[in-house]
Sequence to fold (589 residues):
Amino acid sequence: MAAEDLDKLKGDKKIPAKVMLKRTWSYVKPEWPSLLLAMLLVILGVVIDIAFPLFMKQLTDTLNTPTSETLKIILMITIGYFGASLIFGVISYFEAMILQKAGQRVVEKLRMEVFDHILHMSQNQFNEMPVGSLVTRVVSYTSSLSELFTSILVNLVKNVLEIVGVYAMMFFISWKLSLVMLGFVAVVFAVSLIFRKVIHKIFTQERKYISDLNTFLNENLSGMKIIQIFNQEKRKHKEFDKKNNDLRRVRYKVLVAFGIYRPLISFIYFAAVATTFSFALQLIIGAGEVVAFYLYLSKFFNPIQTIADQLNGIQRAVTASERLFNLMDVKPDVLDQPDALEIDHFEGKIEFKNVWFAYKEEEWILKDVSFTINPRETCAFVGATGAGKTTILGLIVRNYEIQKGQILIDGMDIKKIKIKSLRRAIGQMLQDVFLFSGTIKNNITLRDDRFTQEEIEETCRYVNADKFIEKLEHKYDEEVIERGENYSQGQRQLLSFARTVIHKPQILILDEATANIDTETEVLIQDSLEKIKNIGTMLIVAHRLSTVQKADQIIVLQNGEIAERGTHQQLLKNHGYYYKLYKLQFEER
Fold:
């Protein structure tokens, strides 16, 4: 199922237009009163717009047959024209405001739903989804989808009504000329149909290239330090140039398509105008009728050309909708069971019973792993890279689902515990600390207003983070730039400790939390670890064996299986794999 879902993100699945419109309407439906009011204003606006040429017809006829009442009639026509223009402007303003407000509400709701959907995806899914593609869907595609109903389709209806209304007036003025115009209309629609098919293919390509470019930018801007360290600027420049040129070429195709289409429609319009005057002379109709027919002809072709432009928007929206709904159709790998329970507090007993796990089918990372950690014990996992240490920690918080066996906390299968409840009780301190832009205070509390300043300061003293915070100019209000790059690895780790402790977990997870830090900071962190042990059950993964020597039990993993277990001293006496690791590190020091 997961593989199929990821294929959808590449745009491989075609969603029928009927299904797509139905799903889109479910988001727009709550705004139907606003849309209905906007449609009524649209109809009223079209009626007024269609009436404008009649003022010119009346004015022309009046000037051609002057009487003593001519000036009075001209004045009345002028006042009527000005009044109609004013009403038309007011209607257009309110119509636009109603539609835009409705559109923004739809975008807000849709973006929140998409973002909420992304929040509930598993870590494994994020590992395989390009971040740039997700950003494009949340930001751009939601706007395109909203515009389809709140702008494009409304204006499409407006233009169709105008075409029908204008043609009815043309038929009323001269049915013979109107029948002649039908030939030009048929040509316009045939050209527009061909254009629509061509532009659909181009826009599908354009969306793909935009997504690729966003993905490339996101990845390479995040990894700019590595690019510069390894002198890869020239190669990355070439890669970006290729993607940029792909997008430029496809947009050039759009320009060419519209560059051919618009002049062609204009040519048909001018041919229709010439035909109108030619036939008008032969049919010998009045000057007022000729002027009105000419103005209606202009009004007739303008909405046809606008409809073609709106086809552009419709194609963009359809492509965007398809990609957006493909994302929405990706089911999270890890979900709460219907009967999952909310747990307020854990004692902290953790059991693995014959657990088997693989990221890819049959490529087992853990093989029949079983162990028990008692409440408030400290358990360390050691072993070579790829032995399964970090995987065990990820399984406990249900970042992934096991294929076989059971994981229990306080005797309860974690699949029967609500994910929110489970993760709320488990504090995680990882090797790569992620800090959000904002302030130190915001990063510790995660913008949770429940915590007082006193609690924040007390927590920082508890984990020794206050040692560097108090030296800063703005202390807890000191700025944190993106990813916390203005702080050292050790400082970020201390902030991670504070962030974890202040949320009062009953189980703590440390995944290489003491790696890549200086000796001075390591002393502070080791002191913090001794204090943190008193909070609850602690699980530690560390390559530095000095970090795990005081653990209540140490589990040694090899190739996804438990090779040894015991205390530091017991394992040294065994002269097994742990002894070799310890001796190697001791000799290096």
Q: What stands out?
A: The mean pLDDT is 83. The domain at 350-588 is CATH 3.40.50.300 (Rossmann fold). Residues 233-283 form the longest helix (51 residues).
